[in-house]
Structure formats: structure tokens, C-alpha cells
């Protein structure tokens, strides 16, 4: 049987606090708010820069992994100006600080990370549209290089 599933039931939580330790236990101890009305969480994950070397003797390009970037997320939401999680995201967009985030999938797997909310935009749209918001998160690493922390579901 395949372990593939839909994204239905996935939630995002946000906290202004940093974990005492950059692991699942540290993140789980934080008081966080669920960000409501998310319609698309986008993608996230570490990406390495490509470093190349072209020795003239062999003419071939050698490829190496360089620095890494934890990536970014583009969120789409139905705007709810009374949602505590959305209000915290909007506040985070006005701050230079890293915030703590938790993505919990429908089967209980979790992804924990730090990030900066780089944008919070409202889209009023037309008469036949839901008023929406979008946010861009830039995922960051801890001072020791810890990025996204994964905690698999108990039943996976």
C-alpha cells in the first residue's frame, strides 16, 4: 500500500517565540496559533547552490554542492481579519525577527522551521471572489545550521 495522501487536513501554526532547542521537542513546547483559511501552502525545502570547476586539462565541468538555502513558501489564504494566526503572520511581516512555524500533515507528520514573513498582501478581487491574502515566508537556519526539522507520523 502506498503512503501517498492528499494535503487535506494539513495545518500551519506560527509562534513569535524561538524554541529553546532546534529539534521537535523544542518546537513542540512553543505556544503557537493556527493560521486559518489557508488554501495553498506551496512548497519548501533545502536547495544547494551549484559550484562548478572547469579544469582545462580534462575539459569537463565538475559539479559540487555549495551553500544551501532552506527555501521559501508562498501561502494563499482566505482573508479573516479576526483569525489569530493570520494576525500574527501580518505582525511578523512588519518584523525583522524569525518566527517559528509548524506544518502538520493529515497523518501527523510534522515539519518545524524558522522563517521570516517577507510579505503579507491582501487581494480584494472582483464581485464573485473571496477576499484573499498571500504571504511569502523565507525559511532560515539556526545559528548552528539547523534548518527544517522533520518528525515522521507515528503510523507512517
UniProtKB/TrEMBL annotation:
- Domain of life from the UniProt record: Bacteria
Protein name from the UniProt record: Phage tail protein
Instruction: Tell me the organism.
Output: Jezberella montanilacus
